[in-house]
Protein 1
Amino acid sequence: MIDANVLKRLGETLAARKGTDPASSYVAGLLAKGEDAILRKVAEESAETLLASKEGDKLHLVREVADLWFHSLVLLTWHGLTPDDVLAELHRREGISGVAEKASRKSQA
Amino acid sequence: MIDANVLKRLGETLAARKGTDPASSYVAGLLAKGEDAILRKVAEESAETLLASKEGDKLHLVREVADLWFHSLVLLTWHGLTPDDVLAELHRREGISGVAEKASRKSQA
Amino acid sequence: MIDANVLKRLGETLAARKGTDPASSYVAGLLAKGEDAILRKVAEESAETLLASKEGDKLHLVREVADLWFHSLVLLTWHGLTPDDVLAELHRREGISGVAEKASRKSQA
Amino acid sequence: MIDANVLKRLGETLAARKGTDPASSYVAGLLAKGEDAILRKVAEESAETLLASKEGDKLHLVREVADLWFHSLVLLTWHGLTPDDVLAELHRREGISGVAEKASRKSQA
């Protein structure tokens, strides 16, 4: 069984890298490069997710979605946000389902 | 404190929508439209994440990242995969950190 | 033979739509919605180009690339730029070829 | 005045690189890597276009749109298509304008 706290721990690790020596880790380096560098990675992993899905290799797809989530967490960290903020938003939507849920998201837009 | 099982429950809800009446819910409709329709949503939410980040509205950014994760979970569901597959991949990487972690991901590519 | 001035005329048509009644045409409406709405379309047509390429339908691919160019021209129009600005940049690169060309683009980045 | 045939010449140059030594030029190398490598570049340049637009640097934006068009032409070349195919499609749409034009594109979709 998967430890559901992996996201929480990952968020703490990412936050701890903020402001450390850019050469000390991949994440420290990416955070130091700044917002646009992180956004390029989010866009890149989104495209990789599309290509992996069309390729049909499930292991590859899982790795790309993990990369997409990972880099969106780096983005949140850059903004001072945490994985809990995303989980709280998904939790908030739990009571709202199906077509009503879609309508709700539309009306927020 | 956020219930860490929200992703697990969301994955179960998405899986239960598979094959149900496309008119019955947003997710059932999207799953029925198929892979390309889901991939268009992943790409759209990735672009929305970029725009929300540049806008600097943190609440908006959290909503867009939640949308991105949500639709990447719909994609996994379409492929018969679950949120646990992504969490397991993130967990697998936990022992590998910093520059070594990046090198590891590169060598898998 | 294709009239090479189609881009020039298209640029003029787009520029003429700027500031006109948003209800009067698709382009006037999109320009009135502003930069983020146009960027969403550029991102959407980029994703459609990927999907059409993987689908392998050449007519579909040509239509999506035309949509991508069209909406990038709407973006240039929004910024007060023209198709000639892009053609001039491509012309500027003409003398520079192969690996040297790539190196040149990299060093500008 | 810009030579409107720059796209035609660029298309011919790209076609001539097909099947040549991948080490001999950037384009030959990209064509040899294949469809997914080219699609990654199209997605990357689309994201760069978004970021350059938000940055507001017009020279940078023009360079990124030129990169986007360039790599979409490499994609067309990979599929055995030419810039003329895109220009012909844009020409075909010239008679159809405004809201009617949008409706027409929608009904093709």
Protein 2
Amino acid sequence: MFTVAILTISDMGFRGERIDASGDVIRQMVSRLEAQVVEYGIVPDEGPIISAKLKEWADRGDVDVIITTGGTGLGPRDVTPEATLAVVDRVVPGLAEVMRAEGLKQTPYAMLSRGVAGIRGQCLIVNLPGSPKGVAEGLEAILPVLTHAADILKGRTTDHSSASKVE
Amino acid sequence: MFTVAILTISDMGFRGERIDASGDVIRQMVSRLEAQVVEYGIVPDEGPIISAKLKEWADRGDVDVIITTGGTGLGPRDVTPEATLAVVDRVVPGLAEVMRAEGLKQTPYAMLSRGVAGIRGQCLIVNLPGSPKGVAEGLEAILPVLTHAADILKGRTTDHSSASKVE
Amino acid sequence: MFTVAILTISDMGFRGERIDASGDVIRQMVSRLEAQVVEYGIVPDEGPIISAKLKEWADRGDVDVIITTGGTGLGPRDVTPEATLAVVDRVVPGLAEVMRAEGLKQTPYAMLSRGVAGIRGQCLIVNLPGSPKGVAEGLEAILPVLTHAADILKGRTTDHSSASKVE
């Protein structure tokens, strides 16, 4: 069992000019796991605001995984990866690599997705693209490892993890 | 329609001891797109010189995409990725990942190519390897998305881009 | 012919509570190449200690490639990638990408492996996972290019390398 926070990053969503379909996709897909959504929010595409929200949730202690959607493209307002990198201690490059590789099976534009993943304290932060389709494809690719990742981060598999390092 | 600048990075090319076949390959391949080559230059493998030229072109406002060739290997003079990272605001990891993945289908040495891609202002900068073969393979992999990338960076598809973030 | 140093990073291995099977796997696999293992050590999962050992070996001049095992996961003590990034001048992202991509053919958990590769001076440093299985799979993927990489870094193929940049 682990907890999830969903952060939608979208100027239009924040202004209420658009329904947050992508946040709903995350919520539905996460429900397939032994996971509980404990936070949800929408912020505009502003680096400092995104970083502040990620820090607030990650440092609170009861959020295991933060999943963001939006702001990962090439547009001038797309700064989610930079706002994420600004607050993580350690990056997890493989999660973003896998999401892009899976996305490329659907469309070459997936190579333009700039999402990152990283760890702040004991919290994993993962950037997904903005579109519901991009979210579904990206999350599908990493869903199989999220529970294990949360367990390691919370120290619930410390012994096994330490052992497996050398054995 | 977008504009391209080609920067060949090579000590021997700069000294006129070698024909710049790779620059020609870029020129030919780019001509398949609705693109116009507006600048071309050769610089030696010197970080500050490479960075200065990238800044000059990116900040001028009329260059949408800069494609470099050379300086991405393990040799002591190969510093193109570092010179590029020094001037970009945001990285686009997927472009480099795709070029290496495609290159690996031809040769395992592709995993040693250290090229990066990133954005400075509204200009996309992409590092290609130095050999004509490496350039052809790498550019082939990203050619399908260059026009779209330039459109987003210039704000020509801003509305669609913003919309697709949440929808 | 090139030289290799093996660094096992493991709290339990350092305390003598576990046999270093992964170090042995590296030793056996490297023996397939024209390579000589000139150093071997075990350090705990402490960033500054890892960085200091990497610097010591890389700066000595007689170590061409350092292969580390351990400390690349999500656990709170897993800091090998950060300790490596702290001492390299230039990163070689393709080596880590390839190892993860190969690992994914065996298990989705490979996407959580955070290993990096980079160059300090003329020495290549590569992080492998901690488990013998992870080490074997990762090393298998990059073994075909290690000799060439060492040759370029030591300047033994300088002429060819410079030539291939433009030609």
